[in-house]
Amino acid sequence: MMMTNEKRELTNAYYEAKEGRSIVGKDYEAQDLIGTVVNIVSRDHIIVAVAEQEYEVYLSSIRFPKLGGDGVLEPEAYADEAKDFVRAHLIGRQVHVQLEYSRKPRYGSVFLGSALDSRNVSELIVAEGLDTVLGCNDIGVASNYYDAICTVESSAILNKKAMHSGVDPPVIIDLSNATWEEVGKACDNNIFVWAFDEYEKVEGFVESVIRTDSDTMDKIILLIHSNKKTWKIAFSLYGIVWPRGEEPYADEAFELLRQTVVHKRVEVLLETIDSDGYFMGALLESNTHVAIPLLKAGLATFEPFNPTAYDREFRRAQDSAITKKLKIWENNVEP
Questions:
Q1: Where along the sequence do coiled-coil regions lie (predicted)?
Q2: Which of 133, 164, 195 is the last residue before a domain boundary?
Q3: Which residues span the domain enclosing 290?
Q4: Which of 141, 156, 239, 323 reaches 20 to 30 Å from 305, CA-CA?
Q5: What is the pLDDT of residues 100-123, one digit of tens each?
Q6: Is residue 256 part of a domain?
């Protein structure tokens, strides 16, 4: 059931008044935050860093499937998928938060993107069928976008998305945090097949890109269906280096990589496995290596001492950025 604007305003005003700070007759404006998501405490509880201060924010008016623990013996269906979706879309991303009211804990609506092209995270999650909208009687303070979220939920139910499908989620073998030894055992003839002195190309789906610390490469999380099983692996681009950690342009490089690959179907060509358990190789999206946009933008370099079949394309893209003195090449001096 949808909540009218009048009922929502009365409900929210009631909670403000209950705290002794009725908004009636005051020029009250909900606090807005623009910052970076630095931690996912739980699926509806995030930490947003604004300048040097951190704020706890809860996504309002939605209910996620429960994970195991805290008295719940088994996780509800799609609980892990919901958690991964939130992590993939929020961690390390800049967000705009509209707080519905000022009491603690802070509940609000979280938006990705610019003010002209923003996406409500709650709507995105509900649209995928990975959570549900709380009923009017179960809400302490209703989202200002409650009606829109309800509309998205109706569409997810109609289209039988995820938890509305009546079908259990597929079992996924997660190697995204595995050791080199574990990855090596699973690789040959399970995920990738070695033939004619190279690994055969396979198709994959990019679930997310995850930022790591400065000592390791950012993770491209791939889902690959092989031998009637679905594997989740950590992947990185062989022969390509881009800024990370606190290095200049690390944020821009990460964001461009994320925009280029996330939720895309790709062709995966494996070269090797590194000591951190990363699969290393090439990703092709629409027959184009996904490193090309990074190189053209001056946000990556290629390593010629790690030869690949794409070195000529890499060199052309990088030379273009060098000529234009873009980003990491802005102070480059030709010998």
A1: none
A2: 164
A3: 172-329
A4: 323
A5: 765 556 888 999 876 556 789 999
A6: yes
